[in-house]
Structures are given as structure tokens and as C-alpha cells.
Structure prediction request, 474 residues.
Amino acid sequence: MRNQLWVRRVSLAAASAFLIMGYGTPTLAASKTTTAAKVTVISSKIESTVAPTALGMNVATWDPFLYSKAVPARLQSLGIQLLRWPGGSFSDTYHWATQPGALSQFGQLMHHVHSGGIVTVNYGTGTPSEAAAEVRYANVTHHYGIKYWEIGNEVYGDGAYQNVTWEANVRPNKGPAAYARNVLKFARAMRAVDPNIKIGVVQTVPGVWPSGIPPYWDRTVLPIVGKAINFVVLHWYPQNPGQENDQTLLQDPNAIPGYMSTMKQYLRQYAGSNAKHIQILVDETNNVSSQPDKQTVSLVNALFLAKDYNTWLENGAANVSWWDLHNSRVNAADESSSLYGTATYGDYGVLSVGAPGEPALNRPFPAYFGYRLVHFLVAPKDQYVASSSNQPLVSSYAVRGVQGTMQLMLINTSRSATYQITYQGLKGWLGAPATVRFYGMGSSQLATRFSHFTGQIKIPPYSITEVTLARPIK
Prediction:
């Protein structure tokens, strides 16, 4: 199911108005009535520190537009810190030495974007010696400095469960125990070449298939590899094709704190004394597990991306990587009027491939703008602090900047309600110079205004508002 171009992992309006209270009124997409809401920020309560690898993007060697002229600037505008390559399930059939120039191109792209890299080595049809040679080529011969190396992609999809076989694996022994024992062989061979690399293994999102089902992937893999790894990898696509629902999707990230809490518990319980040093990377995520439709290219996916990234990072993930930069146009399987937007196709990419009916090549889809707002919100060493909303359809995030700023984000997941937000806990920031960035209904790009913080913000339906506060001059 994952060998075709259009399948995930293998394939390829005028701005809405916004305001800080007293500086204008919403003119588009606002409902006739405004509902009062309260957001409380506890700036002394640190939730997590933003890792230098936090913002990631999947890129693929099969992408014919990956090295087009516009790509480096597009990636830089998203603040990308980690590029994942060579492309999902394709990784488990890809023999890098058949085209070493592709790895060289990836290394050069990392250089142009000023990002780090994560490479998925070929576990399914490859060998430890092949992976070690890849590390040598990248880090010893060419000095690309690729730090993160994960062993295989979604290996639990190799037939270990219910005869589900989207992931290639030619080994006669399958399942978590066999995978873990082989990981040790891969890790030894790769570290013999470069002892400074980080080795990662495939895990499942706790409570999401196939987590908790015999042969119990996580609790079997971790005791065997716990002392030998540096990170674990989760992939999260909350919906399956044909079941897309906008409002459900926008509430799905509310489950992430539970996922992270359980994953940390698994590490403590099964990974031994090394558990506290093992990072959690969410290096694939998007809205639906396969067959993207109109939701992937709608404003709803931009709202989802912003909640998705913020909630994983706020709860301690070291990386979140979107699937993916470019993908391909797919005729929508679900054109239901209940889904927001008018598109008749889907595309996982944040940038268009310029297919018939799509925008021109490398033009952004809405998810791109959601990503840009996350980039404005967080930077390495910034700290998420406690922030809560008394309205379930309003998500609030607050970040204490390492440069002495305060960044705030509000995501209105209601399709119809406008909220008048009053902040509590930010009295010391009243009057601070504020840069306000906005994306929502009717937007074709980000809108930016400069103002001063009054402690109140009005947010229209289906919108993301990011506010960066600089300390007022005393």
C-alpha cells in the first residue's frame, strides 16, 4: 500500500483582521457575537525547554523538486532545524550506495538550510555493514555531521501484526524481539565508524495501534536496546482515510500529554538506567494515515499543525517533523461539505508540486503558514510555561523567550465563534511592544501588525494568532 507515489511515506485570500484590544476590529470571518474567554499564564511554571532539533521536516530522495531553487528559502522561513531523509517506507528498500550523489545532495541541502539531519537507514532490505558505510560516507568522508540515525521506518508494519505488511522486511524473523536484536548489530557497526552519532529505534504511540497488542512492541524492544540507543521515534496520524472530521481532528492533540506521559513511563520502566538520556522524536505527523483529501490542504490542517507541534513540544518532545515538504496531488476521496474548504484534491506537502488543479510549484498550502507561526513562537532554549484557557475550543500556548521576550499563541478551533480573550498572569507585560501575526479564514499569507499589549485580544473563528512581546522600556 505504500509503494506508490501518492501514498504517504513513499510519495511525493486576503488576510483576516485581528487585534490587540483597541487597535482595530476583525472585518472578515467574525461572528456577529463575541464570547468572553479567559487565558491564564503562569510564567514561573516551566513545562519544557525547546530543543535545538524541535522543528523538523520530512524530505525525500524521490522528490523531483527537492533541490529546486526556491526550496532552501522556504525551509529557512519555517526555521527548520532537522531534515529527515530519504523518505518514509522508501527507506527500507533504499540502497544508498546505488546513488551516493543523492546523499551528497541531502548533505548540501542541510548546509544551505543550516539544519541538522536524521537519516533512516535501510533495515528492511539492508544490512549493518551497509548502514555503517552510509555513516562513513556522510560523516567521515564528507563531514556532513549527520547526528541522528534511526534504524528502519515503522518496522511494526512488516507483518508482525495481523498480516499488515506495508513495510519491507526480507528477514525471516520478524517482530519486536528480532528487530531489537538486529538494532544492536546495526548500532555496533555504525558507532564503530562514528562514535558520536545518535541511534534511534521505532516505537508506537501509546494507546494507538499496534501499541498494547501482542507481541507488545515497546515493552519488548526497549529492555533489549535500552542501553544502546539515544532516542525513540513516534509517528502520529490521528485519522484514517474515510473517517476525517474537522472538529475531531482539532481536538485530537488533546491526547498528546497522555501519550507523552506513558512513553516516558515506558522508558523509565523498560529502558533501564539510560532512560533519562533517551529523547522522544515525533518524526512523522500529519492529519491522516493515507489517501489525503481536501482536509490536508485546508485551513483546518494549519490549525491542526499548530496544535500538533505545540502540544508535543510543550510535553517534552525533542523534535516534531511534518510529513512532508512535497508530495503529490490525490483526487479527494472525501469531498464532504462537512469538511472545510472547496478543494477537490489532497496533498500531504506543505508546498505544491504544481500538478494540474494545484497552485504553482512551491506555492505554500495553509499548513505552511501554520508552521511559520510555530516558528515565530519557539526557538531553541525558549521555555514553554503553563498556559490554560477556560474555553475548550481555544488553545493557548505561552513561551518565555531566551532573549527576554514572551511569545503567546491562541488557536481558535471553533468554526463559528469569535472570542474576546482576557489574559491573566501577564500584568507585568501590559504596555509592552507587541508584534502580532495572524492566519485564518480568508488569509492568503500571514498578516503582521505592531502594537502594544493591553492584556486583551479578539480572535475570530478558525484562526491562529501569535503575539511576541518585548519588555516595555521603563
Summary: The radius of gyration is 22 Å. DSSP finds nine helices and 20 strands in the chain.
